[in-house]
Design a protein that fits this description.
Strand 2 and strand 3 form a beta hairpin. It is globular, with a radius of gyration of 21 Å. The chain has a seven-stranded parallel β-sheet, with helices on both faces. A four-stranded mixed β-sheet has the order 10-9-11-12. A two-stranded antiparallel ribbon has the order 2-3. Helix 2 packs across helix 16. It folds into two domains: 295 residues, NAD(P)-binding Rossmann-like Domain (Rossmann fold, 3-Layer(aba) Sandwich), CATH 3.40.50; 108 residues, 2-Layer Sandwich (Dihydrodipicolinate Reductase, domain 2). By secondary structure, the chain is of the alpha/beta class.
Length: 416
Amino acid sequence: MTTPEESEKLGVFTVGVGAVATTLMAGVELIRQHQRTPIGSFTQLGWLATADGRRMRVNEALPLAALPNLIFGGVDLLESDAWQAARTAGVLNEADLAAVRDFLGGIRIGPGIHDPAYMQNLQVLHALPGKDKQAQVETMIRTFREFFSAQRCARGVVLLTLSTEAWRGVGAVHATPEAFVAGLRRNDPDITPSQIYAWAAVEAGYPVVNCTPNPVPDMPALQAHALRRGVPLAGSDLKSGQTLLKTVIAGGIARRLLGVKGWFSTNILGNRDGLVLADPENFRAKEITKSGVLTDILDQQVHPELYKDMVHQVRINYYPPKGDNKEAWDSIQLAGWLGYEMELKINFECRDSILAAPLVLDLALLADLAARKGEKGIQPWLGGYFKHPAALPGTVPCNDLPIQMIELERKLSGWC
């Protein structure tokens, strides 16, 4: 039986309407037209064990918003409509673009927040006027509320799918809600656009999912604000391609108690993300999230004899001919019985946004469900979707995918 929540409209607002967001939007519409299968989506193809011992599809066992009831909108610094944004992204073929032209053409994209200190490699065409950060928060609160109201959405979710910003660590201005509000009023340079979007969404009462490496759920101020406002938070940085395989393979290596002397990862990509990451300041944010995934899987404290001297390096290169079809290489130096050395090499030619889009769909639906279940603040059970899983204070995040999936399924089964 369909619940009222399943049949009500759910607004999905993407901050950043580039390759990932438009691939999500177009994909949902193609699935609604029964032209495609939702490959890669746990909420659409996954299974759950119910309390009475049955196994059911996730979207049958839980009152998730139905795909026909999703309404999309967003803001972006370059694009003003989703159709043109999808063409610019170059992810989908002409036949698929033609099938969703009217749908994407009806999605108007508002201007975003631009701070040149955090984004230098993009030629910004579509930015909000002014630099007052408190005013930007107020503008985004109105933007979120007016969009969801105009579209007659019963509920809304805000997804941060914007480009990677220049890295700035979490500091004093992010420590408490009071410090953050004071920082907004004085235009503190350490407050980033992504943090402004997230603060505005939480203040407006909408769940926030950070799909980027930008330090958003890491802010104690935002965590406390989300608890006060009763809003779920999740992030950060989607675990979709090279890092997904890295955590799966690392888990297997760890379970077999093989040694690892070194792990070198590099990839080339030519989309907007690659252009932004060509700036060393912006790459630093991605380097931190990609480099941290092995820490708890190949634990040097537990097994110093296996991982004590391990060298882990990560590189990203902007190569325009590749477009969104990223190519990733990993070279792993292993040690086996009696210390004899081996080497594992991985070459993954993947489609960045094709891998990311189903994860973003899942996160939108699950964040909305969490809000309806009364969840608030950090949602660690969603950690399997991220390279840098947000963790509750005093806890250590897990990056081991099988363990993360057990936690996800256990949480959802409790709601069946």
